[in-house]
Amino acid sequence: MNVDEFINLCDSSCVIFDTSIILDYIKLLKFSKKYGQKMKILSRIMNCNKKTITTLIYEEILAGASINNEVELKRKILYSFNIFSITENEAEEASHLERELRNKGLKLKGENWRIDLFIAAFAYTQRCYVLTKDEDFTKMLNCEKLDEAEYYVCKS
Q1: pLDDT digits over 72-86, tens only?
Q2: Are the C-beta atoms of 120 and 130 separated by less than 8 Å?
Q3: Cα distance between residue 40 and residue 2, in whole Å
């Protein structure tokens, strides 16, 4: 999938932006001269209409802020998203996904793997796509690489 196809998708369908994408964008804002082409691509992606995060992603982003002005920048960026809460439906689906992964002998990596599990469950229950850098999503969802960036576009 190329960036134009993704933007069309994101203008018509719910797309959950994983923490990794938002943190990339924040890093690029700080160092945009160094990453000119990547910043152009990510800025276009960040302007799509139906970009979404969950309250878990919201927490992850703010927890990583080290100083007050960084918190405010992150909040400003996060408020540009549709923000949804995780419900018992996603908890049920996350438990199902976790059992499936265990039965296949697959393990998710990193300290926040359970958050990724809930994001995948949210994508499934709400019929959303996920935009991520995290390869763990390829174990849970049907993913394809975004041509011009090191991101995956995933669907349940």
Answers
A1: 889 999 999 999 999
A2: yes
A3: 14
Tracing tokens 């995956």 back to the chain, one arrives at 152
Give the span between the Cα atoms of 51 and 16, in whole angstroms: 6
Query: What is the layout of strands, in order, in the sheet containing 152-155?
Result: 82-84, 51-54, 15-17, 129-132, 152-155, 142-145
Nearest to 51, CA basis, from 86, 22, 25, 81: 81
The Cα 85–Cα 56 span in angstroms is 8
Q: Both tokens of residue 39? A: 């910043």
Residue 133 CB: number of other CB atoms within 10 A? 16
d(CA 62, CA 150): 24
Enter the pTM of the model. Answer: 0.92
Yes or no: say if 25 and 77 are a contact pair by the CB < 8 Å rule: yes
